[in-house]
TrEMBL record:
<dbReference type="Pfam" id="PF07992">
    <property type="entry name" value="Pyr_redox_2"/>
</dbReference>
<feature type="domain" description="Sulfide dehydrogenase [flavocytochrome c] flavoprotein chain central">
    <location>
        <begin position="184"/>
        <end position="283"/>
    </location>
</feature>
<dbReference type="InterPro" id="IPR023753">
    <property type="entry name" value="FAD/NAD-binding_dom"/>
</dbReference>
<dbReference type="InterPro" id="IPR036188">
    <property type="entry name" value="FAD/NAD-bd_sf"/>
</dbReference>
<dbReference type="Pfam" id="PF21706">
    <property type="entry name" value="FCSD_central"/>
</dbReference>
<protein>
    <submittedName>
        <fullName>NAD(P)/FAD-dependent oxidoreductase</fullName>
    </submittedName>
</protein>
<feature type="signal peptide">
    <location>
        <begin position="1"/>
        <end position="27"/>
    </location>
</feature>
<feature type="domain" description="FAD/NAD(P)-binding">
    <location>
        <begin position="47"/>
        <end position="151"/>
    </location>
</feature>
<dbReference type="InterPro" id="IPR049386">
    <property type="entry name" value="FCSD_central"/>
</dbReference>
<keyword id="KW-0732">Signal</keyword>
<dbReference type="InterPro" id="IPR052541">
    <property type="entry name" value="SQRD"/>
</dbReference>
Length: 443
């Protein structure tokens, strides 16, 4: 959906010249120290550095190379391979295999012609337009931050690192692409019974409907394997949502003896060592748990000094950005893509922190940067969102939610939510068509 045109100038230093392709593929640094220039520039086009190669970052990399052929596009990613959040709940109970969710990144880098560096982004010198990484410095004309989320254990434990680490290692939540995915899968498959607690983060958090999907699929696994387990969902919200009716029906009709949903159960205190949790809806003991603390923008936004501040002067936890251009409010050479994005609208707050939105914004930002580089007006475009959630493993059935966006007369973004609460096998087919289409877009 197109809407207003906005003029944002290209940086004056940026001279467009003959199309010279950057070296595609994986870059190997030779020496490593804090002043090392990791990648000397090639060509005369702008250098665009993307921090984080997940759903949003990989999409942006592909489309930047396509829309600005002379650009030197560099993708910095800490993980050796791509791991998808979507489908990872189904992977937990073997509906899809590891190769489906875990993909090679070098192939797309070579196919689309961007430079992939496997490294940790450690900081920024925005005055000099430099990204610091574990392997040296990388300079940029435009910077895209696409690092996803972090688990804010400090909201529960303050500076008590022992409690944070114990919680992370003993009750992993697997909401970030890393080794926790395997740890959670193993935990589930070794679970012999008892009370499994799931805490949900307060909104906004990554993929709002997916913790309920995970509860359904874990319950289905327990039912199928006759494991005498109970799942207690401790939800800070007053009711299930989105797709609340669909989930309520699934919990009540498919897993009445397994899943209990506790509303208004915001976490007050967690004692991971003694397996006790205090919430606004009461205190609970557990045998095992999937403990999700509040989510925040990934560390890189904090390192860049670009976290928003609320009316109370405290950090919002999310990027401080223009709601329709996705640039940092204080630095228009920096863009945000994906879950780390900040406040968008007084009607609904944040865009859903979903892969669908990250993919859509990756394309929008690539197009907006291309418009700037070629001296055109920037056309602000709104995303859409679509999420499919499996609630039954046999027969396989899903529910789904769609979000549409438009502008009101004052330029405020409005959201329309359409829940598909009736679980059907047709939605499973739609889900696989959706994920294969998205994967083909950037992998
Ligand atoms: C269980 C589950 C189910 C989900 N289901 C759906 C679904 O059905 N549909 C849907 O649309 N969405 C779903 N999501 C949400 C989706 O996974 C996220 O919204 C999406 O991944 C966001 O993309 P992103 O690019 O912002 O972050 P990510 O995909 O997480 O990518 C961020 C990348 O940045 C890297 N990174 C972070 N910090 C650094 C650093 N300092 N240095 C180098 N690299 C760094 C990370 O390693 C990561 O690869 C689900 C998520 C989960 C966990």
């Amino acid at each position: 959906m197109l809407n207003r045109r906005i003029f944002l100038a290209a940086p004056p230093a940026l001279a467009l010249g003959a199309a010279t392709l950057p070296t595609a593929g994986l870059a190997f640094p030779t020496a490593i120290h804090s002043k090392t220039q990791l990648l000397p520039r090639t060509g005369k086009g702008p250098r665009i550095v993307i921090c984080g190669g997940g759903w949003g970052g990989m999409t942006a990399a592909r489309y930047l190379r396509e829309l600005i052929p002379q650009a030197d596009v560099v993708l910095l990613e800490r993980n050796p391979s791509f791991w998808s959040g979507p489908m990872s709940n189904k992977w937990l109970i073997d509906i899809v295999n590891t190769d489906f969710v875990n993909r090679d990144m070098l192939g797309p880098a070579n196919k689309y012609g961007y430079t992939l560096v496997n490294t940790e982004v450690t900081g920024f010198d925005r005055d000099k337009k430099i990204v610091r990484t574990a392997q040296g410095n990388v300079d940029y004309d435009y910077l895209i931050l696409a690092g996803g989320i972090r688990n804010a254990y400090d909201a529960w434990f303050g500076n008590d690192r022992k409690a944070s680490e114990y919680t992370r290692t003993h009750f992993p939540n697997a909401y970030i692409p890393n080794g926790e995915m395997f740890a959670l899968k193993r935990k589930l498959h070794e679970f012999k019974g008892g009370v499994m607690v799931m805490t949900l983060p307060p909104p906004p958090h990554r993929c709002p409907p997916s913790p309920y999907e995970r509860a359904c699929l874990m319950a289905w696994h327990m039912k199928k394997n006759k494991i005498p387990g109970k799942i207690l969902i401790l939800d800070p919200k007053p009711k299930i949502g989105p797709i609340g009716e669909g989930y309520r029906a699934a919990f009540g009709e498919l897993y009445p003896d397994i899943i209990t949903h506790v509303p208004n159960a915001g976490v007050k205190e967690v004692d991971p060592f003694n397996k006790r949790i205090k919430t606004a809806a009461g205190d609970f003991d557990f045998d095992d748990a999937v403990l999700m603390p509040p989510h925040q923008a990934s560390d890189m936004v904090w390192h860049a000094g670009l976290i928003g501040k609320g009316a109370d002067g405290k950090p919002t936890g999310w990027a401080d950005m223009h709601p329709r251009l996705f640039t940092a409010n204080s630095d228009d050479s920096v863009y945000f893509v994906g879950d780390l994005m900040g406040f968008v609208s007084s009607q609904f707050g944040h865009y859903p922190k979903s892969a669908h939105v990250a993919n859509a914004i990756g394309k929008i930002v690539a197009r907006n940067i291309a418009e700037r580089v070629s001296g055109k007006e920037v056309v602000a475009v709104l995303p859409d969102n679509l999420c499919y959630m499996m609630v039954n493993g046999d027969p396989q059935e899903e529910i789904s939610v769609k979000f549409e966006y438009e502008l009101d007369a004052s330029g405020r973004v409005l959201q329309n939510q359409i829940d598909m609460d009736v679980r059907t096998n047709d939605l499973v087919k739609d889900d696989f068509a959706w994920i294969n289409g998205r994967f083909n877009d950037f992998l």
